[in-house]
Design the sequence.
């Protein structure tokens, strides 16, 4: 079994996770949908937490793993693996944005290092997209 290396610092995702159904629905409504090799992901700018605040809101991340991906223990394993990768790279989350990861079944059998590399690519691309949105660039509509 592929075990993650213990040299990476473990950080917490507490307070950075999307938990409410309404938050997911709002994010899906305004998000830009993008695809990677083993998952779809959605990036949505957050509504201002405090009006007039110059600081961006804390980034938030959500995971959606549907029943089509397998039984409960398989879905839970996918979520555990993704949360572990996200904990290792929490500083790469795009500030002021909500990021939702929607994995495909391939994530279940993928090597951990490969999964980590893909999530890092997604986080880098999400940071780039978030800076474009904050810079006032016109939002891109349609496929990337």
Sequence:
């Amino acid at each position: 079994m592929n075990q993650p290396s213990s040299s990476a610092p473990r950080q917490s995702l507490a307070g950075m996770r999307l938990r409410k159904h309404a938050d997911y629905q709002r994010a899906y409504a305004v998000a830009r949908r993008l695809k990677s090799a083993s998952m779809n992901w959605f990036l949505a700018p957050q509504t201002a937490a405090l009006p007039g605040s110059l600081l961006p809101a804390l980034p938030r991340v959500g995971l959606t793993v549907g029943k089509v991906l397998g039984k409960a223990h398989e879905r839970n394993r996918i979520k555990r693996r993704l949360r572990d990768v996200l904990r290792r790279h929490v500083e790469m989350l795009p500030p002021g944005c909500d990021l939702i990861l929607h994995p495909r079944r391939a994530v279940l059998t993928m090597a951990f290092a490969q999964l980590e590399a893909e999530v890092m690519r997604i986080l880098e691309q999400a940071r780039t997209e978030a800076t474009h949105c904050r810079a006032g660039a016109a939002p891109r509509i349609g496929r990337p």
Notes: Residues 3 and 105 are 19 Å apart (CA to CA).
